[in-house]
Amino acid sequence: MVNNTVAKFSIEYYQYLNAQGELINPTEKLPAWAQDFATLQEAYRMMVLTRAFDNKAIALQRTGKLGTYPSSLGQEAVYIGIGNALEKQDVFCPSYRDWGTQLIRGVTMGEILTYWGGSERGSDFQASTAKEDLPNCIPIGSQCLHAAGIATAIKLRQQSRAALVTCGDGGTSQGDFYETINISGVWQLHLVIMIVNNQWAISVPRKSQTAAETLAQKAIAGGIPGEQVDGNDLIAVQDRVSRALKKAHEGGGPTVIEAITYRLSDHTTADDASRYRKKDELAEAWQNDPITRLRQYLFLHQAWSENEEKQLQQICSEQVAKAVDAYQQQPLESPENIFLHQYATMPTSLATQRDEFLAKQQQQG
Ligand SMILES: [Mg+2]
After folding, report:
1. How far is ligand 1, taken at its centre, from the CA of residue 276, in Å?
2. Active-site choice (51, 105, 190, 267)
3. Contact, 180 vs 109, CB < 8 A?
4. Best CATH choice for the domain 13-333 from the list 3.40.47.10, 3.40.50.970, 3.30.70.20, 1.20.120.80
5. Residue among 348, 148, 337, 326 at smallest CA distance from 248
6. Res 338: pLDDT
C-alpha cells in the first residue's frame, strides 16, 4: 500500500506585546510605523474614545434612549487596528460590533447613535471615506458573501483596493463563511476575512462552537492562508491586517486572520452574561485588557503620562457628550420611513400597506 502525507499545514500566531505592555522579544524591532510614538498615541486615543462611547451608549440604552446595543468592551485593539490598517479606497464590510473601525473610517458618533436608536438614517454615512462601506450586518455571517461580491467587482475592475469583512467566532460555523472562503480562494479575490474570536457567540463558548483547533485553519480547506493574531495587541493586529491588505491590493489573493480577543461585556444590552459565564474567567480576561496594555507600553517608553491620561479621559467624555446632545435633539423620524429602503421601486403590496398606514394616521389626526 501507499501511505504518503499529501498535505500539511501550520497556523502562525503573531504578537508583539505581552499583557504587561512589554515587548515579547526585546531584541526584535517593531514594524516601522509602530516605532513612531505619535502614531501609537493616536491609536490609543481612539481606543479610549471607543470605550468612552461604549459606556455612554449603554447608559443611554438603560434609560430608554437607545435600542439594543452591542458593546465592544475588550475588543478595542481589534477594531482600531483594522480601522488604521484600512486604506481610504478599501471597502469595510462590518458585522455589528465594529463601530470602533467605523469611527476611523469617518462615520460619526451621531450616525452610530442614530443607527442603534433605530433609524436607518444612521447608515447613510456622510464621510467620503465611508461612502462605499457597507452598513452593519445583523444576520450572522452573511456579510462574508457581500464582501466576496464586492471583492469580485474590485477584481473585475482591476482596481488596487480590497474588501475587508469581519465575522465572529460563531459566524465561522455558517455556510456563508465557508462559501466565502471557497470562492475567494478559487477566484483569488482582493479580500481580507477577519475572524473576531471573542470566545463567545452570545452564550455559546468557543469550545462548543467547533472541534477545530483554530478558526484560522478553516482557511486552509479553501486553499488560502490563515493565521492568528493576538487581538488585544494593537500593534500586532494593525501590522498583520496591513500586510494582508497590501497583498490583496497587489492581486496576491485573500487572507484569513483570526484575532484572539475576549468579549468583556454582555453580548448586547439584551443579554446577561453572568447567567452563563464564570466570574473567574471574566476576571482573568480583564488581565488582558488591550487598552491597559498599550498604555503600559507607552508609559514604559515615557511616551505617555498620568497628566495626558487625565486630559484624554476628559476630552473623550466631552466629545461623546456633545455627540449625545446632538443625537437627542434630532427630529424624530417619520414612521412612514419604515416602508422605504427595502426596494428600489416599491412593490404594490408594500405601497398599499403604506397608504393604509398614512390614511389611518390622518384619521387619528
Ligand atoms: Mg463571538
Report:
1. 14
2. 267
3. no
4. 3.40.50.970
5. 148
6. 85
